[in-house]
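Example protein
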Amino acid sequence: MTSSSPALASPSTDAAAISDRLAVVRARIAEACRAVGRDPETVVLTAVSKTQPPEAIAAMRAAGQRVFGENRVQEAQGRWAEGLYGRPGGAELELRLIGPLQTNKAEDAVALFDVIETLDREKLARTLAEAAAKRGRSPRLLIQVNTGAEPQKAGVLPDAAESLIATAQKTYGLTVEGLMCIPPADEPPEPHFRLLARLAEDNGLSVLSMGMSGDYETAIRCGATHVRVGTALFGERKPSETVSRP
């Protein structure tokens, strides 16, 4: 059963409220880990900062959060590329792209992000490799898997994941370290998380980015190494953009 999310209140930029929410989520991550005999240090919390105001992000950083996820390259550039919140040059900060990536934004994404979680097709793999060579910088990559085979959603289908992983690694020399998924909203998430875990194990990958505000504890039970949490940290936000592939 999916656990309910803590602190699903209206959005707040109040530093104390954000710090409290962060503490609650971290405590629940630790509890979920202990319940299955895992070290809480094996799970990385990604704070989903997309659409959040500067004050909220600054408060989250002040509370000690160092890993952030953004949905769109251009929006992320506006937040981070000019040195806001400690970027660039802040080795203590990790930025992860968690939204679908258009090939014409690949070079900008390579320049800004430490991790790109949404590689889902060969054309994008080729473009990322070219951008990495041009920029002299190669972000770590995750393959996004469309575990529910939803036509409106980005991600390679499960039965094509192995081929894409091999192509990205062997043909284009990319650093693929794991898999990511977003289960269908109207289905129990656990079967999708377990499918992703099996695919990762079968392909020798160690990183599993899965689980959001409503189901991150379930994801941890299924082996998640990274959970992407927005609402439980920042409160409700305006509806997010579509996750379908451009």
User: Anything to note?
Assistant: The longest strand covers residues 44-48. The two ends are 33 Å apart (CA to CA). Confidence is low (pLDDT under 50) at residues 1-11, 239-246. Strands lie at 44-48, 67-70, 94-97, 115-119, 140-144, 176-180, 207-209, 226-229.
